[in-house]
Structure formats: C-alpha cells, structure tokens
Amino acid sequence: MIRDSQPRVVLFSILLLGSFTILFALTSIGDVSSQANTSLPENKTFNASITNSLQSTFSNTETLENLGLSTVYRSVQQEIKQIMNLAYQSMNLTNSFGNFPLENITEDMQQKYRGIPGEQDTERRNEAKALLANNPYLWFIGMTLPNGDTYFSEPFSSSQENSSKYNYGYRDHIIGALESKNPYLSNVISSAATGQPIVVLASPIISGKDANNTLIGVLALGLNLSQFNELLKTESVGKNNIRLLLLDNNGTKISDSQPTIIEQDSFNDLQSFKNAKNGKLGSIVENVDGKNMTISYAPLNFAQTKWILLSIATKS
C-alpha cells in the first residue's frame, strides 16, 4: 500500500506546482495590461534619447509635431548646423583662418586697437567680412592667440576697437575650446564691446602636420541674438497666444518672439526647462506670473551644451 501511494503523491505535487505557475503568469499579465492601460498624467514627458518606450509610441519628429514645435525646431536646428559648419571649417583648415598670425601684436596695438590695426591682415579680415555678410546669424568673427589676446575682430570698430578688453583668456568659451580641442559654446554673457547680451562659439585652430599640429589660436563666432528673435517672431506669426523662447543651459533668455516683454531674464525655475535640460521633450502645465500656462519644451544640442526651446500658451 505504501508503494502504491508514492506515484499519487508525485502526481499531486506536479499538478499543484503547475497550478501555482499558471496563476503567477496570469497575475503578471494582468499587471502589465493594467500598466499599459493607465492614462498619461497631465505632465507628459518623452525622453529625447532613443528608448524602447519612445520607439514604440512616437519618434522625435512625431512628438515635436504633436507638441507644435516641429517647424521652429527645424529652423533653429538649421542655423545651429550652419554655425557649427563654419567652426569645423576653420578647425579643418579649409579657410584662411587656419593660417595666422601673420602680424606681430605690440603693446601699443593692444592698448590702442585691442589687437592688430584695421588695415592689417586684410586677407583674413576680408574673409570674415564676407562670412558676416552671408550669415545674418553672426554678429562678429574674431581670432585670439592661445593666451587669449585678441588678434583681430570684425567688424573692426564695433567689436574690436571699441572693446573694453584685449584679452579674453578668462572667458569660459575660450578655456573650453582650448581644453576640449573642440567647438565650445558660451552661455549668455555680456559683450565687452557693447555691454549687450551675447553668445559666442569658440573653436581651436591647430596648424597642419608641417608645424607638428601646434595650437595657434581660437576662432570666436559671436551670434546675432536679434536675428534669432526675428526667427522666433516669424515662427509665431498667426499664433497670437503663443510665445516662443530660446534659453541657454543656465535658463537665461537668448531670444524671444515677444522681446518687448520686460521681466526676469532667467527661467531656470520652470520645471519645463529642467525637463528639457535633462534631455526630454514634452508638455506641462505651469504657473507663470500667476497664470496657468501650457509649456511645450524641447532641447537642441549645440556644441558641448544644449539650448532649450519653450512654447508658452495660455491654458484653455
């Protein structure tokens, strides 16, 4: 009798184990199903990097379209690309900026002109003038020596001769370009020539193989923020309740589709800015100046940092 009961015990154990396995599987499926059917909260964020969840719902392009940011995002991105191309052309020695300095800078020149006089090194000055004429998003083009001393800057009068300084070795964009050996973008800073807000992209210039790849200076491209204002204004035409903003990595305003609004220049306390700074794009309702606003946001990669695009609308 004892031998006959053993197979029954084994069989009962197998059936019991199988029942628990099936029950666990059904419970897990129910959990996943309930998570999939959970509605999104009002604060919707989408990671800008490629993730499995993003790939299964929207591509970045589709998300930007849904947020109403697609057109303005592409427009700003195109200008960033062109500015970066200029920086890389100089780094790759495909223009005359890769062959300087040709003139020695005396102490008298530094004090009087903040670099070489306006009539010296006309080849590089003329190339800078041509680039400025063809690129309205640039305000000035300058070249500094490795120690930060200005070699020249165009336009000569407004960006070089009228500057309060001749050495910019302390500026973060100069230091960043020298240390990283790559283009380096500043946050919003005050121009030493005009006192106005400005953003500068600096890129190292390294001589060719014949000179042992020696660092010979830094090219500085000063961006025309007024032109970015015009871009945002154009993109907001017909959208009377929409305000477009470009912010730097600190949350400081770069450009504004409504530049006449007088307020603080920093928006770093907004959750939308913080989300975008962390590489996300999405939409969130926030309180701005006592009003509930719907803010769509997206990050734009620029050199080593990010610009943040915000679209602010009165919540309906």
Question: Would you kindly provide a brief summary of this structure?
Answer:
The chain is 39% helix and 25% strand. The chain is an alpha+beta fold and 316 residues long.
The multimeric state of the shown protein is single chain
Low-confidence stretches: 1-58
Task: Spell out the CATH superfamily of the largest domain.
Answer: PAS domain
SSE string: HEHHHHHEEHHEEEEEHEEHEEE
User: Domains counted in the coordinates: how many?
Assistant: 2
CATH class of the largest domain: Alpha Beta
Overall shape: elongated
The main pleated sheet reads as: 6 strands, antiparallel
| Helix coverage percent | 25-40%
- The CATH topology assignment of the largest domain is Beta-Lactamase
Rg calc? 28 Å
Report how far the terminal alpha carbons are from each other. 80 Å
Summed over residues and divided by their number, the pLDDT gives a mean of 81
What is the count of helical runs?
10
Extended strand count: 13
